[in-house]
Amino acid sequence: MRMMTVSRIRSLLSNLNGPQTLGNSRMFWALWLVGLAAFALLPLVASRYQILTASNFLISAILALSLCLIWGYAGILSLGQAAFFCIGGYAYGIVGINLIETTGESVSAVIAGAIAPALLAMAVGALMFYGRLKGVYVAILMLVVSLLLGLFMRQTADPTYAIGGAYLGGMNGLGPATPSDPAIPSLTFGIGRHSIEIDGRGAGFYWVALGALVAIYLGLRWLVNSSFGYLLVAVREDEQRTETFGYDVRLIQFAVFTLSAAIAGLAGALYTAWGTYIHPDGFSVGPNILVVIWVAVGGRKDLTSVAISTLALSCISIELATWGEISLLVLGFILVGAMLAAPEGVFATIGAWLSKISARRTGQATAARPAPTGPGARL
User: Fold this and answer.
1) Residue-range domain boundaries for the chain
2) pLDDT for 149-177, tens place per residue?
3) Pair 43, 206: CB distance under 8 Å
4) Distance between CA atoms of residues 313 and 232, nearest Å
5) SS3 category, 197
6) To 10 degrees, what angle do helices 285-298 and 48-67 make?
């Protein structure tokens, strides 16, 4: 029984390595653990502002991974991924404001933040995929949906736009409906008096965000190297051929689109808990295009590359923030340059290059070993 359990665990862990992801060697995982340890220890040496900023970067990486899943592996380009992010943020705030005094926790609000955009994705995805929309039409439709949602949220300044104790607030952002209602809560675990509040500006929240990013990264890495991941790649490469083999392409696209929206919504919920604030500007063109830039520069077909590029470009964005609106223009030039220099993504290209070098060295080392001799040698 114990041997069977160990073999099952090894079988499950084997999906973390596969042809759908770069970095499958022991060296990669050793470096990965070193990097994870460095990120985990960051709050011990960083300032409060740096911890606050780093937490936001980690949340951005979760959002980027959600787009990498549908665009890089399923071939579905969405220009409205930030809409799912904002819907998750608003759902967290609305549920949190209404339940925090009753339950003393905001975990249910985080769950609502993932479920709400997933339900929206199910409605929109059913229309798109079962309506046989493809390519650029999906991208345009998602951008239109995002802009329409943003237009609606900007027109909710009237006091009647309140859900329980949560006031949508229009351009002022989500907040309490009356002075007696609670504000958007920070991330809170527990029940009643035994609850623990984690301030988004502290190290505790940073570690929660890091844990969420690692869990989602490993979960998606396992998914894309599973049989379902092979189906996603098959749909990306040739929908018609995949359908001739008896697979329901529309159902596959619908399922991965919904999962991607839930991940983006989870990132939005964490963002709202981080800053206790959510604003309709997140539905605009800029945030939606920014996610595409993160994914394209890193390499849309690899999760690790996307996570690294998002963190790197977020750091660059902070440095460019003092330039005002020109910062997005600079990021656009970075995207153009990256696409010209490395069409498959800068970090994905570097990763593939390093993998080839590692494979060559391994092959040379194997070839240099003397052949076994003696009675035990194979003939």
Assistant:
1) 25-96+111-152+200-364
2) 999 999 999 989 999 999 999 999 999 99
3) yes
4) 27
5) strand
6) 80
